[in-house]
Amino acid sequence: MRLNEIPTPSYVIDEGKLKKNCELLKSVEDRAGCRILLAQKAFSGFAEYPLIGRYLAGTTASGLYEARLGKEEMGKENHVFCPAYKPEEIREIAEICDHVIFNSFTQLDRFAPIVAELHRKKPQHSSAGRSMGAPTGIGIRLNPECSTQGDHAIYDPCAPGSRMGVTLQNFERGLKEYPEAFKLVDGFHVHTLCEQNVDDLITTMQAVEDKFGKYLRSPRIRWLNLGGGHHITRADYGVEDLIALVQRLRETYDVDIYLEPGEAVALNAGYLVTEVMDIVENGITTLILDASAACHMPDVLEMPYRPPLKDSEEAGVKAFTYRLSSRTCLAGDIIGDYSFDHKIRPGDRLYFEDMAIYSMVKNNTFNGMPLPSIYAMDASGECRLLRKFGYEDFKGRLS
After folding, report:
1. 45: domain CATH number?
2. Nearest 5°: phi and psi at 214?
3. HSE of 214, CA atoms in CB hemisphere, 13 A
4. Do 64 and 192 share a domain, yes or no?
5. pLDDT tens, position by position, 6-40
6. What span, in angstroms and rounded, lies between the C-alpha atoms of 160 and 167?
7. 208-248, pLDDT tens digit by residue?
8. Which of 356, 346, 364 minimizes the C-alpha distance to 271?
9. 397: exposed, middle or buried (C-beta count within 10 Å: 0-12, 13-18, 19+)?
């Protein structure tokens, strides 16, 4: 089945582009001497984990369920960070995650001893000295108070009053109040970026080194995780500068370096295929689609942003301009205004691009809207069905 033949609405994962992204990330791993993990919050298409796992070191999670998915479906190095862990989940998290990262000294004091105990029971080396599993670690997230986000404050972990990570003031207070808990820490986590280039990472790391450099030099600190938001597979990304930065950090502080990109793994590697159902005229010509911003690409409204659409331009650039909306009852469920070379008619298909990331992981069934099916497209353009959803998926989330 080809792309123009699949039922709508459907997500389509482009395996050729996914592989190309992973090849670039693998080259960064090898040349920089770092380890790159898939941030599952952006892309959790586990049917593709065997492919991704051929190139990347493992997965990282934002909580127990993502951690389980990474363990079950990729089975390589498995990390987790969460702003707060529940007592009833911490033992399972410790058992399935190699690195457990805490957001505060209070959480560290409460749960790190449990994690350390369970980590000690994990196989580390065989009698012949060969590694039997990924190295374990306990970390704490730092907040360098260095904002580089620009207009996207909703995604800025360093915004004033942020709950994410420990500022230098709180870090030094924590050292005094929880000295025994800190003895269990062997790494730091820093995540401040979103869809950004390496220059912002360089700026961030200067702030981290200025504030926390003396702690990074501690012999007990074995690793530094630079989080995600690195758009490494974007055409204009400064890959060489990233490699140089990672190499310098490794040499300066004698630590292993981790990167956790999500978007970069599946950037431009997916589509949302939709059909025009009707056209409404009311001062603006609006196309009613069987896809929805609110339900199928929530970041369009949340971020907000205007998703790329194949064979279209900004409003007014081409001959025919339309507003794209949905069949939900939400008046504001508007995807954006686009122009085309030709008139659009009911039954025509449209192809939203860059739809592998933050789409399937965030969609919902508001209004009883059906979830799009999920297809994978191989390098020859052949599409195969991975998952089809129906009424029971809607009903099963309710009671």
Report:
1. 3.20.20.10
2. -65, -30
3. 4
4. yes
5. 999 999 999 999 999 999 999 999 999 999 999 99
6. 11
7. 999 999 999 999 999 999 999 999 999 999 999 999 999 99
8. 356
9. exposed
